[in-house]
């Protein structure tokens, strides 16, 4: 009798745990969706790093809405395979690949030139590509600093006139809640890091830079009908931590039970790219399809302006 009672209690405990897990999974992965059905027929969307993870899921959704989607990817084979998948999943054949390596500023300039020559429109720019790794780019900058912030800053600058000409238009910048741990020290911020732990700090710094970029950009774009938004996609099952050895990810393996897939992780990017009536929230931070207050550093207007001028100087954009 006692054994039966114990078994029953065990069963009830297991059912409760399963129920809690299902609730948590639903809350983290499914509950927050972009629910609008806005059509993007006639619009052109450019997504950096659209061949994998959140970028690819975003591309499928925007292609389903009828947009012409340009994937800006660094690897031809991976890019072509993604174009094939996205066309098949969306039923839209207007998905094309253009090569862009954000680890090379020359590649960014060459990409922008051929994009402007071949594509008459740009309605939505999604600065999505990102790395979480240490090391140096071919331009001598820290990987995360350049790929996540500086190269996207340059790309946005080079495409801004086209976005203005196609207004109302939007820029979506993938940041992260990791921006809360970011610090911007202008003496060291752009210098390459040499170990993965420091690479983690660089990642957080670059994500703070994404937040500040969106903030200052929104200010400078006032009155143009071009708006911009910074996004945290949630914690999403992607390849972002691919540089880390498997054994260092043991904690993430446990967390993987609860994290979102790329389709769920793409919802806030899709929302910021398509939702009508959010223009007055330009420059703000969005999480789970809602505007959220970011860390105090990310609201520092002086720091945002200083970072803008610092980035311009590094890129030789000042006259
Ligand atoms: N996953 C998360 O939990 C999470 C959380 C917060 C924020 N985010 C942000 O979400 C964005 C998308 O990340 P993800 O999670 O989808 O990661 P992912 O699966 O690793 O995808 C990253 C994309 O960026 C591209 N990329 C990397 N370096 C590049 C370069 N030098 N030039 C051009 N493209 C490059 C990758 O291309 P290859 O395939 O060629 O490498 C890939 O397409 C990132 O900005 C990330 O910081 C992610």
Automatic annotation (TrEMBL):
InterPro entries reported for this sequence: KR_dom, NAD(P)-bd_dom_sf, SDR_fam
Pfam families per the UniProt record, alphabetical: adh_short
Residue stretches making up the Ketoreductase domain: 43-239
Domain of life of the source: Eukaryota
TM spans (from-to): 6-28
SUPFAM superfamilies according to UniProt: NAD(P)-binding Rossmann-fold domains
Keywords carried by this UniProt record: Membrane, Oxidoreductase, Transmembrane, Transmembrane helix
Family assignment from sequence similarity: Belongs to the short-chain dehydrogenases/reductases (SDR) family.
Name recorded for this polypeptide: Dehydrogenase/reductase SDR family member 13-like
């Amino acid at each position: 009798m006692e054994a039966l009672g114990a078994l029953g209690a065990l069963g009830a405990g297991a059912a409760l745990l399963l129920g809690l897990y299902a609730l948590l999974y639903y809350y983290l992965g499914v509950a927050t969706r972009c629910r609008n059905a806005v059509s993007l027929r006639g619009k052109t969307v450019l997504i950096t790093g659209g061949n994998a993870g959140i970028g690819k899921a975003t591309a499928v959704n925007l292609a389903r809405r009828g947009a012409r989607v340009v994937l800006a990817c660094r690897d031809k084979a991976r890019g072509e395979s993604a174009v094939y998948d996205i066309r098949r999943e969306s039923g839209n054949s207007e998905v094309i690949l253009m090569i862009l390596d954000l680890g090379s500023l020359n590649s960014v300039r060459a990409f922008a030139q051929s994009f402007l020559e071949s594509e008459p429109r740009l309605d939505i720019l999604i600065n999505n590509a990102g790395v979480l790794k240490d090391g140096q780019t071919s331009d001598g900058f820290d990987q995360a600093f350049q790929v996540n912030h500086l190269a996207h800053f340059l790309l946005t600058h080079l495409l801004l006139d086209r976005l203005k000409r196609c207004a109302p238009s939007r820029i979506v910048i993938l940041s992260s809640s990791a921006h809360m741990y970011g610090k911007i020290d202008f003496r060291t911020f752009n210098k390459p890091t040499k170990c993965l732990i420091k690479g983690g700090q660089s990642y957080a710094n670059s994500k703070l830079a994404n937040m500040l970029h969106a903030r200052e950009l929104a200010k400078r774009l006032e009155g143009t009908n071009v708006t911009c938004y910074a996004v945290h996609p949630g914690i999403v099952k992607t390849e972002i931590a691919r540089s880390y050895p498997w054994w260092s990810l043991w904690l993430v393996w446990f967390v993987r039970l609860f994290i979102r897939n790329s389709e769920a992780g793409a919802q806030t990017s899709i929302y910021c790219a398509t939702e009508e009536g959010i223009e007055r929230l330009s420059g703000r931070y969005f999480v789970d399809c809602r505007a959220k207050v970011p860390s105090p550093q990310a609201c520092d207007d002086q720091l945002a302006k200083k970072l803008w001028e610092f980035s311009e100087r590094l890129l030789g954009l000042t006259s």
